Each structure stands twice: as C-alpha cells, then as structure tokens.
Amino acid sequence: MPGTSMSKPSASKKVIVDFPDALYQDMQRAVHELSVKRSVLIREAVCEYLRRRARRKLAAELADGYRANAALNQQISEEFIHVDAENL
Predict the structure, then answer these.
(1) CA-CA distance, 40 to 82, in Å (whole number)?
(2) At what angle are helices 21-34 and 38-68 packed, to 10 degrees?
(3) How far is CA 66 from CA 73, 76, 79, in A?
C-alpha cells in the first residue's frame, strides 16, 4: 500500500485505543507468543487491515468496470468470432 511502511516511521503519533477485555487478553497472548511489543503488533495489524481493505476496494472497482463494459466486450467478441473459427 503506498504511503505505508513496516519500518520505523520518521514521524510517529501516539494514540489511545480502548479494547474490550477479551480482545485485550487475546492481544496480550499474541504479544507473548510472538515476542513483540504491543505497539508493533497493533501497527502490523492496522497495516494488514488497510492492505486487505485496499485489495477489496480494487477488486470491487474492477468488477464494476467489467460489468459496466460487459455489453461492449460481448459486442467486440461477436465481431471477431469469425477469426476464432478460422483457427479450428
């Protein structure tokens, strides 16, 4: 994702995040299992979430584009069907 990096940013911001108790406990277990700092785990989770969100958005935009051009694509395909038949 452009503008994001897993390396230490040159300028950073601190945020306060409230977690439900169960999610906090799960996060703490992951911190210990992975031997990482809590801030690293949260930062990586946010980066991964944003990457996945961008992929879903792109997939939706592509699907919309394919649907919007479906009639034109069908027309072009039908115009060149004879070319395909020549190779049989």
Answers:
(1) 59
(2) 110
(3) 9, 14, 19
Give 80's DSSP letter: T
Token couple for 50: 């944003």
pTM of the model: 0.65
For the chain, domain boundaries: 21-86
Contact status, residue 1 vs residue 48, Cβ threshold 8 Å: no
Express each pLDDT in 17-48 by its tens digit: 999 999 999 999 999 999 999 999 999 999 99
Nearest CA-CA partner of 27 in 11, 8, 10, 41:
41
Read off the amino acid at residue 17. V
